[in-house]
Amino acid sequence: MNKIFNINSALTIFIKDFRSELRTRYALNALIMFVITTLAIILFAVANETPSIEISAGILWIVIFFSAMSGMARTFVSEEERGTVMTLHLIAKPSTIFFGKLLFNLILLFLMNIFTVVLYIILIPSFIVQNASIFILTVVLGTIGLSAASTIIAAIIAKSNTKGTLYPVLSFPILLPLLMIVIKSTKSALEGVEFAKAMGDFQVMIAYFVVIIAVSYLLFDYVWKD
Amino acid sequence: MVFKIVLGIGLTLVIIAGIALPMVPNPSSFFELPVVPGLEDKARIIFFHVPTAWVCVIAFIASLIYGIQYLRTKEILYDIKSVTAASLGFLFCILATVTGAIWSKFSWGAFWNWDPRQTSIFVLLLIYGAYFALRSSIEVEEKRASLSAVYSIIAGLTVPFFIFIIPRIVSSLHPDPIINPQGKIHMNPTMFLIFLASLTGFTAVYLWMFNLRIRFSKIQYQQQMKEQE
Amino acid sequence: MEFLNQNSLYIVLIITLICWFGIFGYLFSLDKKINKLEEKINKESKAVK
Question: I want to staple B187 with a disulfide (CB 3.0 to 4.6 A). Which of A1, A81, B192, C48 is the partner?
Answer without folding.
Answer: B192
